[in-house]
Amino acid sequence: MRKTIIIKYTPNDNIAFTGQEEGWVDNFAQLLEAALTKFSISELDIRYKKEIEEIGLEDFTTADAVLYILSPAFIFSSNVTQEISELERLLEFDVATISKKCLKVIKAPIDENDLPMSLKVGNDYRFFHYTDEQHQGYETFEGWNEYKENLPFWQIFTDLIFDIHGLFQGSSKVDSFKKVYLAPEFGSRYKEPRESLKRELKSHGLSILPDEEYAIEAAYLADVQGFYLEKAQLAIHFPEEFMPIEHQENKDKLDKFPKLKRLIWFDPEKLNDVNKAKGYSDLKINLKSFNNIEAIEAPLEELKDIIKERFGLGFKANARKDNQGNKKFSHLVYVIASGKNLGDDYQVLVNRIKELGWEVAESIHTSENASEQRRKHYDNLQQADYFILYAVNGALKWIEANAKEVKKAPGMLRKKSILGKFIITDNKESLPSAWEEDFTFLAVDEAAEANFLSKPMDNEPSK
């Protein structure tokens, strides 16, 4: 299954730092290729285009995905506005098709008003965060730097990988009858949580408004929000949209669409803002008179669960916890397997590990329930004592991709040491000797009795 990705970037974003052999874009592309092999994509053609090289209609048509690596340097020097405008003209302003295939990888802060419409309406994959409240400084996330805490990079990168895989499958999981209106962020403080919420809900098949399907039509309307609210089954707002509540225009906004269920999210981390605390309090008092509007004061992850449960998609992460409700550092072996048809030796090994007293978490990857799998995967990377990659029928590229996944574990805010990492395969002679620095190699028949594992001992969180 051959797939093609075009990466458009500026060389200014690909300058290698001291001690690095390659720049950000090259490393990003290598990680992208390795990760997509997890989905059995045997041939991946990654083509590079610099900021002044045109992506024409033929390029767009033959590519399965187009990634724009966005930064101020890229916006300043690229032809992206003219390029997208020409594609819109040639495709009869089919914004939905262009925005679906053209993905925004945002490496550094940009003004999205500088982007053409087809890039404005799609998902954001933000690989940076601001380092101060005034948003004067920022830091770009890196996925390979062992000296930095890199969990944010991998969380966003995983969302991107699942979305690209969805493009490759050529089918959409979106349920057009389950539409959620997600209000503009009303300040940059909500930009990242809004994008996180948008990606999560889309991964569960919800249609998020505003979207590319109605972008052209809505652009010519006086009341754009009302246009989208009429189509939604649920609306999510941020409190600043209605503040100060003493203003009549803000009260009028609450009176709109009395039959539509609306949630206003109050982020607990922001409620102590001395400049807004009174405004938040006054708004919550006013909301009590509305039967269709509910104030939600909860962390972002709980908000996601609340919304999903309203659509019958509820999922609560089953994190291991002790009697006091704290995360339990259990004796855990995380087994990542290359497929479903693994033979009898695999089940013998899993049963033997359990007989030794270990808890086993198995990951046999599929493209379904992507959000649930992702959350469980991160939980296991953070808590496992042992890691096992189990691969049959060669699967060298799969092993390489998942070895990189396991090597993320030390950066996952772990509280205890890793006791061992193993690659179990029916062809261990083909494994590169350099991998032995991080993994112990075992043949399938050698591993069946699990003699390579010690018996569980009290493994308290390391200091």
Describe this entry's structure for a reader.
- There is one protein chain.
- By secondary structure, this protein is an alpha/beta fold.
- It has 3 domains: 2-171, Rossmann fold (3-Layer(aba) Sandwich); 173-316, Rossmann fold (3-Layer(aba) Sandwich), CATH 3.40.50; 332-447, Rossmann fold (3-Layer(aba) Sandwich).
- The chain is 35% helix and 20% strand.
- It contains 17 helices and 17 strands.
- The strands form 4 sheets. Strands 2-1-3-4-5 form a 5-stranded parallel β-sheet.
- α16 (396-406) links the parallel β15 and β16 (420-425).
- α7 crosses α8.
- The longest helix is centred in the middle third of the chain and has 19 residues, at 151-169.
- It comes from Shiella aurantiaca.
Question: Descriptors for this entry?
Answer:
Rossmann fold, Toll_tir_struct_dom_sf, alpha/beta, 5-stranded parallel beta sheet, TIR domain-containing protein, 17 helices, single chain, 463 residues
**Average of the residue pLDDT scores:** 81
The CATH class name of the largest domain reads: Alpha Beta
Return the domain count.
3
Number of helices: 17
Ends apart, CA distance between termini: 47 Å
Q: Which class do the helix and strand fractions yield?
A: alpha/beta
- Main sheet, how many strands, which sense, barrel? 5 strands, parallel
Supply the CATH architecture of the largest domain.
Answer: 3-Layer(aba) Sandwich
Could you tell me the CATH topology label of the largest domain.
Answer: Rossmann fold
Strand order of the largest sheet: 2-1-3-4-5
Q: Which radius of gyration do the C-alpha atoms yield?
A: 24 Å
Runs in which pLDDT lies below 50 for 5 or more consecutive residues are 315-329, 459-463
Report the strand count: 17
Q: Could you tell me the strand content as a percent range? A: 15-25%
Helicity, in percent?
25-40%
